[in-house]
């Protein structure tokens, strides 16, 4: 594994270029067809720089160097958004890098998938410590079969479902079919985000790595993982998909987990504008929930949000947001709802209880939307509402000792009570 780390100063473009040159060994990829799997616009990383460097270093000697956007189930990026994402227009790319193309993952088209294998139910039971016992079909984008070598390029942050993002997560859910997406997300929900986020060895991560082994049996994979402070890269790890990811996750824990002495009564979490709907912006809740006191409140302050979900809005508006036990107590009622949607619902609502006799649902914290989503819809989906025009974030700054926390650009820094040595 090759790595470049500087906790104090952002990595320079020159240093990143030099590390890529050594870590990727471009001559070893000469004459090969290479597919780089990259994030969409909801992840912070120097995508423009990485695209240019990869295209310059590999494009001239590889037969093909294409880029596949790992959408998971996010909405596809438009041509204009892709141009902005990689910092170069399609016309310019066609001239400078004629053997390169960029594609969206077609997560909603079954014809684009193939199945390299199945994780047997007995193995799933072992991997999940008995939490789930059912076989998981492993299917993903068949485009990978058109290439000789795969690159996974993306950042590593604390993550509500897998513990940390990055690595094999760019395969599942990044370019995967529905079965493994739904199952792994529901495993994460059963574990709860509170117990999962910011932990490297999670039940979901074990399943993801087992699924990745099926892909590795077909194609070699090199991981290019970054760790970030805000918009700036502070770590670059190149190598084995498992080892490089583990090293990046350790670094991400140091950079992206903030430990506080006491929980807060209220949090005003303002997600970045790169999150286009509540589906993605709800990271503001996930990253702050562990630092909120029982009975406290998380306000997702995002005036720019007007949609619950571009991809899943209709079903989410019908199901609403509920604690995990609400779904567990009514399995038949929600059997047809995909596991990823149930998981998102309960991750946003947070930890809590449900009494099936009384029908009373008791979340540990209140989640309030101060967004462009209408009040009637907020109430209908079982979330609180506040008029964002009545909130001035400036009045929240510097009030931590009062139990109030303001998180600008929320969604990447995880807040936890305690100290690093207490981390699982």
Walkthrough of the structure:
This protein is of the alpha/beta class. Helices cover 31% and strands 26% of the residues. It has 15 helices and 20 strands. It has helices at residues 13-24, 47-58, 79-86, 90-96, 121-127, 178-191, 193-196, 203-216, 243-256, 278-281, 283-288, 313-319, 324-328, 339-349, 375-380; strands at 2-5, 33-38, 64-69, 102-104, 113-119, 136-141, 149-155, 158-159, 163-164, 221-229, 232-239, 257-260, 264-271, 292-302, 352-355, 360-363, 366-371, 384-385, 404-410, 414-417. The strands form six sheets. The protein has a seven-stranded mixed β-sheet with strand order 1-11-10-7-2-3-4, with helices on both faces. Strands 18-17-14-13-19 form a five-stranded parallel β-sheet. Helix 1 (13-24) crosses helix 2, helix 6 (178-191) runs antiparallel to helix 8 and helix 6 runs parallel beside helix 14 (339-349). The longest helix is centred in the middle third of the chain and has 14 residues, at 178-191.
Count of discrete alpha- or pi-helical segments spanning 4 or more residues: 15
Quickly give the structural class.
Answer: alpha/beta
End-to-end distance, in Å? 25 Å
Query: How are strands sequenced across the largest beta sheet?
Result: 1-11-10-7-2-3-4
Task: Characterize the largest beta sheet: strand count, sense, and whether it forms a barrel.
Answer: 7 strands, mixed
The residue-averaged pLDDT reads: 96
Radius of gyration: 21 Å
Q: Which stretches are low in confidence, meaning pLDDT under 50 for 5 or more residues running?
A: none
* Proportion of residues in extended strands: 25-35%
Shape: globular
């Amino acid at each position: 594994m090759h790595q470049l780390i500087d906790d104090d100063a952002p990595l320079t473009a020159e240093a990143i270029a030099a590390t890529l040159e050594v870590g990727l060994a471009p001559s070893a990829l000469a004459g090969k067809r290479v597919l780089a799997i990259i994030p969409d616009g909801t992840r912070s990383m120097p995508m423009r720089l990485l695209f240019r460097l990869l295209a310059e270093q590999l494009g001239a000697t590889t037969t093909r160097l294409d880029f596949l956007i790992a959408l998971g189930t996010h909405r596809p990026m438009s041509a204009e958004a892709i141009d902005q994402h990689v910092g170069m227009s399609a016309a310019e790319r066609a001239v400078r890098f004629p053997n390169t193309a960029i594609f969206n993952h077609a997560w909603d088209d079954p014809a684009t998938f193939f199945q390299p294998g199945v994780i047997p139910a007995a193995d799933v039971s072992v991997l999940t410590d008995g939490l789930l016992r059912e076989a998981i079909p492993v299917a993903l984008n068949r485009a990978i079969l058109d290439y000789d070598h795969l690159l996974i390029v993306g950042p590593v942050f604390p993550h509500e479902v897998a513990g940390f993002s990055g690595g094999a997560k760019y395969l599942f859910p990044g370019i995967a079919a529905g079965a493994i997406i739904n199952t792994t997300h529901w495993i994460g929900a059963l574990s709860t985000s509170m117990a999962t986020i910011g932990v490297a060895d999670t039940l979901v991560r074990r399943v993801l790595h087992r699924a990745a082994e099926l892909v590795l049996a077909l194609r070699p994979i090199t991981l290019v993982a970054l760790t970030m402070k805000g918009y700036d890269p502070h770590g670059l790890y190149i190598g084995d998909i498992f080892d490089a990811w583990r090293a990046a996750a350790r670094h991400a824990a140091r950079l992206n987990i903030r430990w506080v002495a006491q929980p807060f009564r209220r949090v005003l979490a303002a997600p970045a504008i790169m999150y286009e709907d509540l589906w993605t912006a709800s990271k503001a809740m996930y990253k702050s929930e562990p630092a909120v006191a029982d009975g406290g409140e998380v306000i997702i302050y995002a005036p720019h949000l007007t949609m619950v979900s571009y991809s899943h809005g209709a079903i989410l508006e019908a199901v609403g947001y509920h604690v995990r036990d609400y779904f567990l107590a009514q399995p038949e009622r929600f059997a047809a709802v995909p596991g990823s949607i149930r998981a998102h619902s309960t991750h946003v609502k947070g930890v809590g209880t449900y009494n099936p006799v009384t029908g009373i649902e008791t979340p540990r914290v209140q989640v309030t939307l101060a967004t462009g989503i209408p009040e009637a819809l907020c109430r209908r989906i079982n979330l609180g509402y506040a008029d964002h025009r009545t909130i001035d974030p400036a009045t929240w700054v510097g009030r931590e000792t009062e139990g109030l926390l303001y998180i600008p650009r929320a969604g990447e820094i995880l807040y936890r009570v305690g100290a690093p040595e207490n981390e699982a």
